[in-house]
Amino acid sequence: MSTEARLPELDGAPLFLLDELPEGAELLVGGPEGRHAVDVLRLTPGERVRVGDGRGTIAEGEVAAAGPDGLRVRVETRLEVPRPEPRLVLVQALPKGDRGPLAVELATELGVDRIVPWAASRCVTRWREDRIAKGVAKWRSAAHAASKQSRRARVPEVADLASTRDVCGELAEADLGIVLHEQARARISTVEVPGRGTVVIVVGPEGGLTDGEVLAFRAAGAEPARLGPEVLRTSTAGAAALAAVSLRTRWA
Length: 252
What we know:
Function: Specifically methylates the N3 position of the uracil ring of uridine 1498 (m3U1498) in 16S rRNA. Acts on the fully assembled 30S ribosomal subunit.
Family: Belongs to the RNA methyltransferase RsmE family.
Number of strands: 12
EC number: 2.1.1.193
Helix content: 25-40%
CATH architecture of the largest domain: 3-Layer(aba) Sandwich
Shape: elongated
CATH class of the largest domain: Alpha Beta
CATH superfamily of the largest domain: SPOUT methyltransferase, trefoil knot domain
GO molecular function: rRNA (uridine-N3-)-methyltransferase activity
């Protein structure tokens, strides 16, 4: 039986993600997910779990068996969780060091729908041509893990590395584009946010945005805005902005 609903309030049941969610009254959580369930979480028959495909479909039920092949789950309910509105896109300039996955994890926990890694002019970190695929894969892995931790029905998309021109394209197609800038006059709390459509938030690098980038983004229809009196790290500013937008839309 399948129903369309919001994911019920968290009750402590862990969430496991599979590439495909098979039909039927019973399903197997195998591979790394199954080993984690059996060897780390030590789940036993009768415990409640959720299994999803990362695209909005969730199967709820209880553990039927736990063993070397993984976790066998007896399915009781299937839910189609609708995508929340508005759709939230974070354009994240590449942070230095290992802060990229941190930015992805925080944004995922805050409900982002799409993350676009951006090679801004003043980025300290540069992904060489032979390292781009590895960098994107690392961000996608972080989004997948954070989705399980936060029990999200949908894993956010992580796009390929974007240029400034690509970001302008994202902003031109958005219903609202916000560029975080510490010198902006408007605060993000005063920006009128649509209840539906797509909201794109751009976060610059540690060295800040260039004048050319700001002008290009404004020409694409974006509004510069600041979060508050403090200047946040690039790896945490996106999460703060997503929270500010969600408080007035999804969480209202």
